[in-house]
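thoughts on my protein:
***
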Amino acid sequence: MATDTLTSPAMLGTSATTKVYKNFIDGEWVESSTGDTFENRNPADSRDVVGIFQKSAKADVDAAVEAARNAFAKWRLVPAPRRAEIVFRAAEMLLERKEEYFWKVVYNDNNQKIGTVDDLIIAPDRSVSFAVIGVGGFLGVGKHDVAIPMKNLKEEQNKLILPGATKEALKALPEFQYAKADNRKKG
């Protein structure tokens, strides 16, 4: 599914690896037929490379569609209640992963409490990619959330540590905000 590529430090924390994601076609993780890739950057902080993804061509799309058609021929024979069980279990697995970190206190490397994990962002590969940390109390500004890549958090003695998380460094990060729902009428 993914291989690791060493990148330079982009945000708080130490240098980390950036995942190279492959296409999942016919039950296998494969590179694109073009052999080309592209970077996907965090829109909240363009210094942070979220991942490197395959630059797919029409041949890759055609192969994926054909594989999906073949898989559907088998999937449609599974009784609806069993399909529902499978989908429900997949959702449960996602929620279980969130609970590992949700509401955990986060400290800096000076053992100061900087905030708590208020939410997690799940990547397409079902990994937890970002932690949304409420740091407003630490900064003395009320509510202020920042999105930190999970690769930048360290776990030591059952504590989450964000190295380099000073007040100045956290204030310099863009504030995380949820996308607003589009309430316009569709016409």
Q: What stands out?
A: Helices lie at 58-75, 80-99, 136-139, 167-172. The chain has two domains: 2-77, 105-172.
